[in-house]
Design brief:
Elements (H helix, E strand, L loop, with lengths): L8 H23 L4 E7 L3 H16 L3 E7 L5 H13 L5 E4 L9 H7 L11 H9 L7 H14 L6 E5 L6 H10 L3 E5 L6 H6 L3 E4 L17 E4 L3 E4 L13 E4 L4 H7 L2 E2 L7 H19 L8
Parallel strand pairs: 1-2, 1-3, 4-5, 4-6, 6-7, 7-10
Antiparallel strand pairs: 8-9
Helix pairs in contact: 1-10, 2-10, 6-7, 6-10
The chain binds nicotinamide-adenine-dinucleotide (NAD).
């Protein structure tokens, strides 16, 4: 492992946020437009509350208008659909994000389908999924967008490279595969039923792990010089860090990749934490800027 082969997602995300902020200043100066992002949080999930707070703070830091709608956990589905429709009609709202997961009485697909695709900064609406796979102007899901930006920054032209995406979720795995295909990679999507995962990885120039199983991808699976993007976020017990007040072991975050071993083989690798994670909100801000430009008939900046 060399320090050079570790991709610093925190620094890369900070750079992207700075570029977005500079474009926000320009949009205000040239067109008197300030992009607005509205986030809807239903219920009291503590992790979701932290995400929403961070999104709000970084939106304001980028010079955009941030608004939050915090609704009780027992809010009826119809009320959320009404709110989404109001935001669809509000020209000061350029991006709408409904924080998932939603409480059980609410049909997530129905709510996501109600968002105007041109304001769908999470890129989950089927219209944006279709636009992504057909190569037209989509709003692209933030986490895979962050991964492809880091890959292109590190490797330049991805054309002809073989990539294995481990995971087939709508949020990460599938859009990641679409983005890699658009960059002319040869893509294999692996999942829970894949039988020869180690061999597939050994042949890959690029390995993207988006599973949610701690350190599942072994260092020995990585081809020397390959690029490894670890999307997984897993909290595991870390007895080496001592005990919490209640006597249970302290915990730490690890990715889906056995980091130390894989870093010894990889040409470049993202750590967890500090790799893909910080890129997600930075890409949300980028998507909000792009959405605001397109809604006003302005070509989005190439960032
Ligand atoms: P998911 O549970 O929806 O999907 C997991 C995928 O892994 C599934 O497609 C499944 O087929 C596959 N899988 C399960 N076991 C497997 C195995 N043994 N071999 C190969 N594939 C297997 O999860 P998700 O929403 O795609 O998230 C994946 C991980 O990425 C999670 O750890 C999540 O926390 C993390 N994540 C991070 C960010 C971020 O950094 N901002 C964003 C989204 C997700």
């Amino acid at each position: 492992m060399t320090v050079d082969n570790i991709i610093d997602g925190k620094a890369f995300a900070a750079g992207l946020r700075r570029k977005v902020a500079a474009e926000v200043v320009r949009l205000k100066k040239d067109h008197d437009i300030t992009p607005g992002l509205s986030v809807v949080l239903v219920g009291n999930d503590p992790a979701s509350a932290v995400y929403v707070r961070n999104k709000g703070e970084q939106t304001k830091e980028a010079g955009m208008v941030s608004s939050e709608h915090r609704l009780a956990a027992d809010t009826p589905e119809a009320d959320i659909l009404d709110l989404v429709n109001k935001m669809n009609d509000d020209p000061s709202v350029n991006g709408i994000l409904v924080q998932l997961p939603l409480p059980h009485q609410i049909d997530e697909n129905k709510v996501l389908a109600a968002i105007n695709p041109n304001k769908d900064v999470d890129g989950f609406h089927v219209t944006n999924v279709g636009r992504l796979w057909t190569g037209s102007d989509a709003l692209v899901p933030c986490t895979p967008l962050g991964c492809i930006l880091m890959l292109k920054d590190r490797l330049g032209d991805l054309s002809g490279k073989s990539a294995v995406v481990i995971g087939r979720s709508n949020i990460v795995g599938k859009p990641m595969a679409a983005l890699l295909i658009a960059e002319s990679c040869t893509v294999t999507i692996a999942h829970s039923r894949t039988v020869n995962l180690a061999d597939l990885c050994r042949d890959a120039d690029i390995v993207i792990a988006a599973v949610g199983r701690p350190e599942m991808v072994k260092g020995e699976w990585i081809k020397p010089g390959a690029t490894v993007i670890d999307v997984g976020i897993n909290r595991v017990e870390a007895p080496e860090r001592g005990l919490k007040e209640d006597g249970s072991p302290k915990t730490k975050l690890v990715g889906d990749v056995q980091f130390t071993d894989a870093a010894g083989k990889a040409g470049a690798i993202t750590p967890v934490p500090g790799g893909v994670g910080p890129m997600t909100i930075a890409c949300l801000l980028r998507n909000t800027l792009v959405a605001a430009c397109r809604q006003n008939g302005i070509a989005p900046p190439p960032i």
